[in-house]
Amino acid sequence: MNKSYPHINGKLHLTGSSRFIADEIPLPEMLYTKFLFSPVAHANIMELDTSESITIPGVEKVVTASDIPGINQIGLVIQDEPLFPEKEIMYMGQPLAMVLATSEKIAEAAVKLIHLKYEELPPIFEIDEADEKGEWYIPEKKIECGDVQKALSEADFTLQGITETPTQEHFYLETQRCRAIPGEDRQIILYTATQSTMEVQEVVSRLLNLPANRIIVEVPRLGGAFGGKERGATIWAAMAALGCFLTHKPVQVLLEREEDMRSTGKRHPFQGRWKVGFDAKGKIEALDIELLSNGGAYADLSIAILERAMFHADNAYFIPNVRIRGRACRTNLPPNTAFRGFGAPQAIFILESILDEIAKKLELDPIKLRQINAYRSGDITPYEQKVIECNLPDILERLAFNSNYDQLKEEIEKYNDEHRNSKQGLSIIPVKFGISFTTTHLNQASALLWIYIDGTASLTTSAVEMGQEVSTKCATVVSKVLGIPLENIRVESSNSQRVGNASPTAASTGTDLNGNASRNAAEKIRVRLLPLAQSMLKNQGIDGNMEKICFKDGTVFSSDSPETKIEFKDLIRQAYLSRIPLGANGYYSTPGISFDWNIGRGSPFQYFVFGAALAQVQIDLLTGEHQVLKVFIVHETGISLNEAIDLGQIEGAFIQCYGWCTCEDLPRDTTGHYLAINPSTYKIPTIRDLPSKIQIEMIPSGSKYASIFGSKAIGEPPFIYGLTVWFAIQNAIHSVKPDAILKFPATRESILLALN
Ligand code: MTE
Ligand code: HPA
Ligand code: MOS
């Protein structure tokens, strides 16, 4: 299974022939859109006058809240988000009105003629202020085990502090977009860049007061999403749908980069207020932590993100007495949303900061401290899920071996002794990442598989392809079950008519859920084909048992006489003539997961992914520049469905987090304007920022609980590894200034500030 054959979209991408939304030629009569975005973060609308803008030739319609035929509500988990605000503007960049015109230029000119009068209200931007004022979407959540107060009071040492993490822009290459086309019988066909076809359908149906079966959602593929299109795409799809509904013409919504960066939600900033108790050896006895998130103007996915943060507040460590309290705070920023890791990276950064403080206090080796506290099989998490098949101690040992840890440490010390203006540092982080949607009901998927008369296959699943190559992995599963060569399987666009009620492709579960659904569909067809295959083989003199029939490399044979084969395509033609159905619907739901928030107990995850990373960096004390010299990662993939794809995911996730914690600074002014709204001011890592050396070892440890064919989810867990760079930079700084405080992200400015 674990071969590294090229993924199925590779050739299309490289030749520029893969199709994305709005790549198609303009449609006849298509209308283009531009928005009036709020110029202030918090205000009451006094007047919104569109009468002048509508007079411009080429303007078809100017749409506001009053044009919505159904319910002006796009919230799902908590219904607190209007498509257009009717009275209260909640964030800078919030869309207030939409112009539909025959060209973008005309639409842009018309937006300037919409007259907005408003009365400013005091905005809230910071977690502290929102929390003080009780601006939470829902009351505090809690997970508690043991006796924290007692353990803290009895601990040899205690430390406390406040640790913060900032936001991050998704910077998917393809900005938010949607094309809506009117169909017959009140149908609206949405070509939308969403991770969640079901959510778009549900929200648009409510907004337009149309049955769900009139809303068709079609997603060819996404030009990257990283969580930013799990919920974030819905509002723009709803805009296009509304425009199309009102004009009966095709409508295109397509955000420019600056519009996208200004108006869309990002990674949640978090604050951790913590107190930790530990003994002289560094064993952590107690942790009392409050996790607060900055959720922005509307709830969006903030509750689920807070939950995942709370589930990862322990990262990879067994702590007997824990209290985790979580509050998601409402502020006047664009609604923050899902972003790779979904709250876990924030919580893990906070906990690793705590471990660094403990190591410093006790002058302990960082890897030893982590080894002492690491989970072992049989340990229980604070929410009472048993940690099984846990090889963290081995992984840490493996990492020490791969990196030649003791020698590396000595080399760094020697380097630091010998260099005045440049210092090196090192850090290690183990990871335990829970797999499954924490919202239990989302853990389901379907697949629709057709085998055509020539033996080729067409596969649709609930999954959305966004570069993670869930399509290659699902095709691999079908290929394995039916023995069809990969090139004979076409993975189709995601489409609500072919596969309905699709959960978002998120939580790293795309392949687990949809691979299993694909397997289910393929196995149904295989079972139907077996008796026919048996009788066809019998005609060739092979009187075999049905159990012994193999489907492999486009042929079917009995394992007893593998030299006598029938062609798969001949079997299929015969099956059609024999009236055996060659289409199947597959379904899968994750077994054995549940959680009860009333008691903060349960097993929300099907399994955990384990791994660890080490980074060595060098900083220039005069310029604040840094270089990542070496990165070592040991990551448990289970039995990978495709090692090349998994390697790409590990590298990509690492670099994405590396950007978050070193260069992706996104400051805001006092009025709530994001100051970096394009790539000239928002610095994401590029090819030149790659570590000089990166060595990744993938461990194929067999797992009873891993998902499809023994593989483990890959999309998000490796994101955490990038944090090692931040801690290694801090470690280098501490070699000259032990009490220096390094800001996150560790930009040159932050590094220089910490040193001064
Ligand atoms: N990889 C690419 N190339 N593009 C993406 O948008 N999204 C990430 C990850 N890897 C993403 C990606 C996120 S946030 C998730 S949850 C998973 O892919 C989703 O896909 P999967 O569940 O199929 O792994
Ligand atoms: N991850 C990603 N998206 C989600 C989750 C999750 O755990 N829960 C609900 N939406
Ligand atoms: Mo990923 S943040 O779960 O889309």
Summary of the model, kept short:
This protein has 18 helices and 29 strands. Helix content is 29%, strand content 25%.
What does this structure look like?
The protein is of the alpha+beta class and 756 residues long. The chain has four domains: 10-122 and 170-263, Alpha-Beta Complex (Aldehyde Oxidoreductase, domain 3), CATH 3.90.1170.50; 124-168 and 266-364, 2-Layer Sandwich (Aldehyde Oxidoreductase, domain 4); 384-439 and 603-756, Aldehyde Oxidoreductase, domain 4, CATH 3.30.365; 444-589, 2-Layer Sandwich (Aldehyde Oxidoreductase, domain 4). It is 29% helix and 25% strand. It is built from 18 helices and 29 strands. An eight-stranded mixed sheet has the order 3-5-1-12-9-10-11-20. It has a five-stranded mixed sheet with strand order 7-15-14-13-8, with helices on both faces. Helix 5 (197-208) packs across helix 6 (234-247) and helix 16 (643-662) packs across helix 17. Residues 195, 227, 230, 338-340, 342, 506-507 line the site of dioxothiomolybdenum(VI) ion.
